[in-house]
Amino acid sequence: DDDLDLDLTKLKKKKKKKMADVIDDDKEDEGSTFPNDEAPKIGSLGGPSWLGSERDYTYDELLSRVFDIMREKNPDMVAGEKRRFVMRPPQVVRVGTKKTSFVNFAEICKLLHRQPKHLLAFLLAELGTSGSVDGNNQLIIKGRFQQKQIENVLRRYIKEYVTCHTCRSPETILQKDTRLYFLQCETCHSRCSVASIKSGFQAVTGKRAALRAKAT
């Protein structure tokens, strides 16, 4: 009977942990990769605020993302700012009483990186007259025209056939594919078709007089 006389008061019963405590202990045992067991908030590491989130992007975030991509692919491009295209004014002088000379025609073609034939066709179509390039690379236009008129035509040409229709950059290439012309931008790499040159009204009284004289 003495063997059965045991002091059970000193034996402590092992306390069972609650399931919530076990889960908390497991989380603590996993360890944290961040100091002070504090995870950084989204965007606190310098990244965009939308990273790690399943919410829809806002318009401003999408716009910012697009410009960031454009900056990465085109370092020379100043995103968000329109680059102004500066062109030398045309030098226009009178030749006699019925003709006008576009003195620096060839120089402007080089500055625009366009073929003289294409710019010539546009000028003559817009002015509704005829003309040709002489031995000094000057454009001789039939009729009396002011410098302001030539400037306005050049502005329309630059807007349609030189500056990019997307980013307004002047760094473009005019390519011809079959019967169509395409404007290829070297800055944003967009490509779009441009309108074909349509000739305007031209008086044919001189031609009719020549035909009548020939018929008689």
TrEMBL record:
Keywords: Initiation factor, Protein biosynthesis. It comes from the Eukaryota. GO terms for molecular function: translation initiation factor activity. InterPro entries: IF2/IF5, Transl_init_fac_IF2/IF5_dom, Transl_init_fac_IF2/IF5_N, Transl_init_fac_IF2/IF5_Zn-bd. Gene3D superfamilies: 3.30.30.170. The keyword Protein biosynthesis applies. Residues 22-31 have a biased composition (Acidic residues). Residues 16-47 are annotated as: Disordered. It holds the Pfam family eIF-5_eIF-2B. Residues 82-191 form the Translation initiation factor IF2/IF5 domain. Belongs to the eIF-2-beta/eIF-5 family. This is Eukaryotic translation initiation factor 2 subunit 2. It comes from Branchiostoma floridae. The lineage of its organism: Eukaryota, Metazoa, Chordata, Cephalochordata, Leptocardii.
